[in-house]
Design a protein that fits this description.
By secondary structure, this protein is α/β, with parallel strands linked by helices. The protein has helices spanning 12-29, 45-54, 57-73, 90-94, 104-114, 126-129, 133-140, 150-162, 171-186, 215-227; strands spanning 4-9, 37-42, 78-80, 119-123, 144-146, 191-194, 212-214. The chain has 2 domains: 4-103 and 217-227, Rossmann fold, CATH 3.40.50.1860; 104-214, Rossmann fold (3-Layer(aba) Sandwich), CATH 3.40.50.1860. The protein contains 10 helices and 7 strands. Strands 5-4-6-7 form a 4-stranded parallel beta sheet, sandwiched between helices. A 3-stranded parallel beta sheet has the order 2-1-3, with helices on both faces. The longest helix is centred in the first third of the chain and has 18 residues, at 12-29. It is globular and about 45 Å long. It starts with a strand and ends with a helix.
Amino acid sequence: MAGHIGIVACSAEGAALCYTTICTEGAKLTERFAHPEITMHTFPLNEYMKYVEAGEWEGVASLMLASALKVAGAGADFVICPDNTIHQAFDLVAGRSPIPWLHIAGEVASEAKRLNYRRVGVLGTRFLMEGPVYADKLAAVGIECCVPDMESRERINDAIFDELISGVFLPETRSFFKETIKHFKKEDCDAVVLGCTEIPLLITEKDSPLPVLDSTRLLARAALRKAI
């Protein structure tokens, strides 16, 4: 394998899915049991959340950069971060990082553009849905971004933090997410971005009323392409 992938993790379930995807799909692309070398580092989620909840993105960036320095020191050639929300600090990190980064929303936007989508719904934490991460990356490739109403955003946010990041996937939560995606379909969306890296563990392509853009696996696959 040519490239050593660094993973700057934040929440456990999404990071684990990204890591597993690289390992399993790497073997499919190359040979049995083979995948690129991987180094992952994460600070406790509560350290990130105290900055996210305060809107202190420089603090988020400091943690991301510290993790990047650790994986670079272990030999990583480039970095990915399987967490959409903290990408709001991406521009504060990328220019100071010792190794390059892939941007999760950039990879999703590229895939949406490749598939000729015009308008997509975005699901994620409240911070993500109300922030610029996807709106900016999608607009850059000419795609309109749609988010749920405020009440739905709050319910989705609570489900992510109270359930999904702890590996809890309830049928009633799945049903609510499906209803939200149905509303996107009524609003003329072509697809839905699963913009929390745990959502693909709750909603699959088969469950969704719209085609899904799985941010976790799209980032993992982009890292594989770069590494192999």
